[in-house]
UniProtKB/TrEMBL annotation:
Entry annotated with the keyword Cell cycle: no
PROSITE patterns per record: GGDEF
UniProt keyword terms in alphabetical order: Antiviral defense, ATP-binding, Endonuclease, Exonuclease, Hydrolase, Nuclease, Nucleotide-binding, Transferase
Organism: candidate division WOR-3 bacterium
NCBIfam families: cas_TM1811_Csm1 (TIGR02578)
Gene3D superfamilies: 3.30.70.270, Hypothetical protein af1432
Stated family: Belongs to the CRISPR-associated Cas10/Csm1 family.
Pfam families, alphabetized: Cas10-Cmr2_palm2, Csm1_B, HD
Cofactor(s) annotated in UniProt: a divalent metal cation
Gene Ontology biological process terms, A to Z: defense response to virus
Residue ranges constituting the GGDEF domain according to the UniProt record: 542-691
Name of this chain's protein: CRISPR system single-strand-specific deoxyribonuclease Cas10/Csm1 (subtype III-A)
A single GO molecular function term of this UniProt record: ATP binding
Length: 812
């Protein structure tokens, strides 16, 4: 692209950033109805719309409290937020354009608002092409208790009042621009950015954040000489025409709207000023799980925390290097990140990619790498972004194939020349890298395994973060010691991290990130906690269980977003990640399972937890139920899971491969009544003891388990033998269903089983035995004769319930 020659506009990055974050905050104040409207109207009579008047009023009040911006800077911010709907200078135009692009899903021009204070934020999951139900959030702060949308939630009280005063207090105390972003996340995550006329499924936080990200890109494009006043005017004009086109289409009730828009955009809004960067850490699975069973608990945890921090710090490194802000990280979770950047960053990005590649290669050789891909974004792509989102993934996948290109050219020797084999070399028992100096004895002596400094440092990482309340992340340029540890990798990126167990003393530092705590200035989410138990302690008589799950049909879900603007796509990703990276971890805490469940990782869209089978069984049911509510009961949003039981000293990596196989089973089995229709989501199952079940069937298993448990409990003296017989009976008389379609109950077999169980020698508990058979039989009868739905298709429910119980009583 040709660099334009124009008179440089003297803009201040901080001013652009804060203005774009606060441009719509007036809506918050206005809706609270705590201010005299006429006063504000008269005071800012030259401002045409209502909310910018309030935004300006808000900024003017705030400027009296915050002293890390100069009077001149505050004046500029106040001007920009006040006139962002009627701009006449370049920096205000930047915010207007950013605002429009961030809200590209809006269907009409904004009108003066009046009756809107009771409008709630709709769940992004309830506004999809084949699902449209009104699930809404209460106006409230971001925390565990407020994360569930409610169906046709109605609240006539003005809920803005409840959170306004605390918000004003907190925002008045922010110490840097990053804290502004965090405070907005806390208070504006459940406030709709839009009310009336629009689908309000984008929060004021998500809208402000994306507006800031876009504005910062435009700021950089200007600084690098690629966008000027004339160009901004041209884009704004084109966008205005496009909005008229959208409105016209809407009035015609045109069902091919998306198609038409696509055609419309073919030769319009083609300017490329943005790139969407995707980063993806690859090799994670092998890297985390290829550890010996001894000390596995800590090794796994340390490695998974390292991956989590590495992903975040690489994203941080990129935004720091490209002169972006935290708002430009659209998503970060599960070893992935998406960053919105300016187009003129391309060359710099290539250098950054190479640096990261070399850094990871130096420390992990080919075992771990970060693939970075990017796609150019046209202005029009903000309106239909799911394509761009997908293309950036394709770009990353393409990179994976050529990932050692950089290395091959420059570090050829490192890759292919064997180390000097003439002298005997010692290698690390985990990563097999050569150990140059013998590592600290005390870490590894008692275990009879030898670890390199790096692998040892992952174990210390698990120890350090174990009871940590916060992480302190600071900038650092050179490493203090030359030991090869996880810290030295972060140091080489320019960061230093420390964990702190103290919840108070460190909180006055500006770079403290509280772990999973929204009641703070800044936070970091993720699973850092480690139970005070080894795998041996967690096991039932030498048996330990794994729960692995991930979200089904993710690609299809993104395809179902209506008017898939960049706002909607990133909101959807953020919400899904929030469930796994925060909600799940808090749920474990609230259910008091912290010492029983070992969360190896949880983030993005997948989870791995290790623990006792029964605890994991109950937890998976609970999590499924919560996920359903979290995603507005949208039938397209499901996850599949697998529960596997292994000997405690079975190699973790082999267990993981087996778990993957079981998860595949959950996702591939299709019940006969799922074949006819594409509407019922397939997958959505859980495999346990090698048997796939629907989640409904899992509830039946739970019911049977409880009955069996009570029965066994009352027959203490010979419970093992009774259970054996039940196990045998449930196996022997399977299948209980016959018929050409496998859907007719075999009464004879039910009777035989009843007879068999009766013959269990101990006659005195006949009544309870009958009860169990009764329940089982009723489940079947109800299932096959009285229900059209036929919730039970896998007859192994009794057998699996007995097997879980068998493991449970074995431990005592
Ligand atoms: Zn090692």
């Amino acid at each position: 692209m040709k660099k334009n020659n124009f008179i440089g506009v003297n803009m201040n990055k901080k001013v652009i950033y804060i203005s774009s974050l606060l441009h719509d905050l007036g809506k918050f104040l206005e809706r609270s109805k705590q201010y005299v409207n006429n006063y504000i109207k008269n005071k800012y009579s030259d401002i045409r719309y209502s909310h910018p008047r309030y935004s300006k009023f808000f900024v003017e009040q705030l400027s009296k409290k915050i002293d890390w911006l100069s009077i001149e800077e505050w004046e500029n911010i106040s001007k920009i937020v006040g006139y962002h709907h009627q701009p006449n200078d370049f920096d205000t135009k930047i915010i207007q354009l950013a605002d429009w692009l961030a809200s590209a899903e809006r269907e009409e021009q904004e009108l003066e608002e009046f009756n809107y204070i009771n409008d709630k934020l709709e769940s992004i999951f309830s506004n999809m092409s084949d699902y449209n139900e009104q699930y809404e959030y209460d106006i409230s702060v971001l925390n565990f208790d407020n994360m569930m949308p409610m169906f046709e939630f109605n609240c006539e009280i003005n809920r803005y009042i409840d959170i306004l005063s605390k918000f004003l207090e907190d925002i008045g105390k922010v110490r840097d621009e990053e804290e502004v972003l965090f405070i907005l996340e806390k208070y504006c995550s459940y406030i709709p950015a839009q009310t009336r006329q629009y689908r309000s499924d984008i929060s004021l936080y998500d809208h402000s954040k994306l507006t800031a990200a876009i504005a910062i890109c435009l700021f950089n494009e200007n600084k690098n000489g690629f966008i000027d006043n004339a160009k901004i005017d041209k884009i704004i004009q084109e966008l205005q025409k496009m909005m008229e086109f959208k409105k016209f289409n809407k009035d015609q009730d045109n069902s091919d709207f998306k198609e038409n828009l696509l055609t419309y955009l073919e030769d319009k809004l083609l300017d490329e000023h943005f790139i969407l960067i995707k980063g993806d850490i690859s090799g994670i699975q092998k890297f985390i799980f290829n550890v010996p069973s001894k000390k596995a608990a800590k090794s796994l945890k340390g490695r998974s925390i390292y991956i989590m921090l590495l992903t975040q710090l690489i994203a941080q490194y990129i935004i720091d290097q490209l002169n972006l802000t935290k708002s430009n990280i659209l998503y970060c979770g599960g070893g992935n990140f998406y960053i919105l950047s300016h187009k003129s960053a391309e060359n710099k990005l290539k250098e950054i990619e190479k640096r990261i590649m070399q850094l990871l290669f130096k420390h992990h050789e080919e075992k771990l790498s970060c693939n970075i891909g990017y796609v150019s974004m046209k202005i029009g792509d903000f309106l239909l972004s799911e394509k761009i989102w997908k293309e950036s993934s394709n770009e990353v996948n393409r990179k994976k194939l050529t990932k050692f290109n950089y290395i091959l050219k420059e570090d050829f020797n490192k890759l292919f020349l064997p180390t000097d084999i003439s002298k005997s070399i010692q290698t690390c028992d985990i990563c097999k890298m050569e150990i140059k100096e013998k590592s600290t004895e005390k870490e590894s002596d008692s275990l009879e395994i030898v670890l390199c400094d790096m692998c040892n440092s992952f174990i210390s990482l698990a120890d350090e973060s174990k009871n940590a309340k916060s992480i302190i992340i600071s900038k650092k340029t050179n490493s203090e010691d030359n030991k090869n540890t996880y810290k030295s990798i972060f140091n080489e990126l320019g960061y230093d991290i420390k964990f702190s167990n103290d919840s108070h003393s460190s909180s006055n530092l500006i770079n403290v990130y509280k772990i999973n705590d929204f009641d703070s200035n800044k936070w970091i989410l993720g699973s850092f906690y480690l139970p005070n138990k080894t795998f041996d302690d967690l096991a039932d008589k030498n048996k330990i269980a794994y729960l692995k799950l991930d979200v089904d049909n993710l690609g299809t879900i993104f395809g179902k977003v209506k008017n898939p603007s960049l706002s909607r796509i990133s909101t959807l990703s953020r919400q899904l990640n929030l469930f796994f990276e925060y909600y799940l971890i808090k749920l474990v805490e609230k259910e008091n399972l912290q010492e029983d469940l070992y969360i190896v990782f949880s983030g993005g869209d997948d989870v791995l937890v290790i623990g006792r089978l029964k605890k994991l069984f109950d937890f998976s049911l609970k999590l499924r139920e919560k996920f359903k509510i979290f995603t507005a009961e949208n039938p397209n949003l499901t996850f599949s899971a697998a529960l596997g039981v292994f000997d405690v000293d079975f190699p973790v990596i082999n267990a993981i491969y087996e778990m993957e196989h079981l998860l595949k089973k959950s996702k591939s089995i299709i019940y006969y009544d799922e074949k006819d229709t594409i509407k019922i989501p397939r997958k959505n199952k859980i495999t346990i003891f090698n048997q796939p079940f629907s989640w409904k069937e899992l509830e039946y298993i739970k019911e049977l388990y409880d009955k069996l448990y009570n029965f066994i409990d009352q027959n203490k003296e010979n419970k093992r033998s009774i259970l054996r017989k039940i196990l045998l009976a449930s196996e022997k008389y399977n299948p209980l269903i016959d018929g050409p379609k496998g859907n007719e109950i075999n009464n004879q077999k039910i009777w035989k089983m009843r007879y068999y169980l009766r013959n269990i020698k101990d006659k005195k508990n006949l009544k309870q035995k009958e009860e169990i058979i009764d329940i089982y039989e009723k489940m079947w009868l109800k299932n096959y004769y009285f229900s059209d739905e036929k919730p039970i298709k896998n007859h192994q429910i009794l057998n699996v319930a007995a097997k879980i119980l068998d493991l449970e009583i074995r431990k005592k």
